[in-house]
Design a protein that fits this description.
The complex is a heterodimer of chains A (about 110) and B (about 250). Chain A is mostly helical and about 110 residues long. In chain A, about 85% of the residues lie in helices and about 0% in strands. Chain A contains five helices and no strands. In chain A, helix 2 runs antiparallel to helix 3. With about 250 residues, chain B is an alpha/beta fold. Chain B contains nine helices and nine strands. The longest helix of chain B is centred in the middle third of the chain and has 16 residues. The chains are: A mainly alpha (about 110), B alpha/beta (about 250). Chains A and B meet through helix 1 and helix 4 of A and helix 2 of B.
Amino acid sequence: MRALLRLWAMCVWLTVSSPLYWVLVALAVWLLWRYSLSPWTWAVTGGGTVALTLLASAFLESGRSLRERARLAQANLAVLSALGATFLCLWLVTCLLGLSLLEIGK
Amino acid sequence: MRGEVSLTLRRGERLCLYGYSGAGKTVLLRALLGLRPRRGEVVWHILPASVGYAAQHPRLFPRATVIQQVIWCAALHAIPLSVHGSRIHELLEQWGLQTHRRRQVRHLSAGEQVRLELCCAMAVASQLLVVDGLLEQLDERSRARFWEEVDARCARRELALLYATHSAREAELADQVLMLHEGRVLALDTPEHLRTDAEVEPIRLEPTSGSEQARLQAVWQQDGETHLIIQRTPTMEDVLQALIRRGGLR
């Protein structure tokens, strides 16, 4: 459980420390505000942003690091669980963040 | 890789894959670890999670700090390393990374990244350590510390070491050497047996100084020319070259 929490923390850190994440969030918020998109569109956009950044940070940016290390340690399931938990958590946070910003901007 | 490879590695042993660049050392290592397709069977009598692998090109997260990188590697192997624990600080101290523990990996020099890759592998290797060609990139101090740690753990029969190198000096330190050339296995034996079996010819040199003359063992004449034969223990590279000329051990 402790290891799983560490892996979750790793995935969260990899995503939120990525400039790509913040650029995409800023772009999505601007689009939402500029074209008055519905909160549902924002939810989908936020989910896409988180998923894209998470996959890019975990699998592309560090080469084959995570994939190879997980395969060698036979920790694929743990890594997938951590990725899933990170996605849900950050999706929620991103949605709330975007909607709060819009409320402030109104 | 062409041909077949059959090898056994027991606890406390050090096996070296030795050959020039392009010999197939990395391919063989990665196939053994299941990181690339292979034919044949690898039987592990240890848990895969007890294997620490240091790859030829360090596989690190660029935005992680040094301490995060080690802790995450340990977490993947379900090893409980804590930021406040002594083990992680021992490891970082041993690899000369303690002062850089809060620095991001992308800001480390190439040599420091190599040390960090090895540190991560050592942190998780409870039974087998696999090192792919990183030892020749270490500075003398780190290299000495690495062998000190490996020697101690091998002597206690805690750990086995499987490493690939193109450095004859590193190959000399193995219990067994698997010689490879252009994807083919030339020989597998102890360094002592390889020296004997490869029948390396003595090296003929012209003396340049009196001190060198004093070490001369014999004088050999051919076609009216005098060759001075200096006897020296053949290095692993001499053995490899002899085996390449001969196409492997007879």
